[in-house]
Amino acid sequence: MKRAVLAVIAITAGMLAGQVPAQSHDQGGNWLVRARAVHIDPADKSAPVGGSGASDRIGVENRTIPEVDISYFFTPNFAAELVLTYPQKHEVYLDGQAIGTFRHLPPSLLAQYHFMPDRTVSPYVGLGLNWTTFSKNKLLNGQGSLEHDSFGLAAQAGIDFRLDRNWSLNVDVKKVRIRSDVLIGGVKASKVEVDPVLFGIGVGYRF
């Protein structure tokens, strides 16, 4: 609930700010490239290990990572955004104790609506798909692993603060559905819901 409220606040604040008379800007081109620092906050939910006992015993560490996204504006309001990073390494915990690591690559493709693209403060929302591929699983001394791929919805809310024709500052919140079976000795032992919220801040260049 707290995370959903943060997203709503971000959009509401941006829309209200956009209602205030502000300097209009030349669009600066159809392409927008952003670089962000993104904090990953996983949901840390999981099914009982072995099918019985307590839930949510498996967790994934929080991390702050670099992110690059490329957007193309089909119209002043509608854009598509491809979100990219390099493979990220995460620690995995069982009952608070480290049991190994895995790497994942989580690109997302989102369709966006920008409410006031010619204003100094321009809020937007996006909805799309995430594909996460897991690799280099090193859980339980090689006995455990995650299934290879996860496909799920991705949603976002953000604000661009225009500095001039080309440059902008950006804040962004995304919620991504990432889930995987947990295998021990090749047999499903649990299911983990990573489902992270990603808080990002960065700069953009439009051309």
From TrEMBL:
GO BP terms: transmembrane transport
InterPro entries named in the record: Enterovir_OMP, OMP/PagP_B-barrel, OMPW
SUPFAM superfamilies from the UniProt entry: OMPA-like (SSF56925)
Gene3D superfamilies on file: 2.40.160.20
Keywords: Signal
Keyword Glycosyltransferase: no
Signal peptide from the UniProt entry: 1-22
Pfam families: OmpW
An annotated GO cellular component: host outer membrane
Major subcellular location class: membrane
UniProt keyword Kinase present: no
Compartments, record wording: Cell outer membrane
Protein name in the entry: Outer membrane beta-barrel protein
Organism of provenance: Pseudoduganella dura
Source organism phylogeny: Bacteria, Pseudomonadati, Pseudomonadota, Betaproteobacteria, Burkholderiales
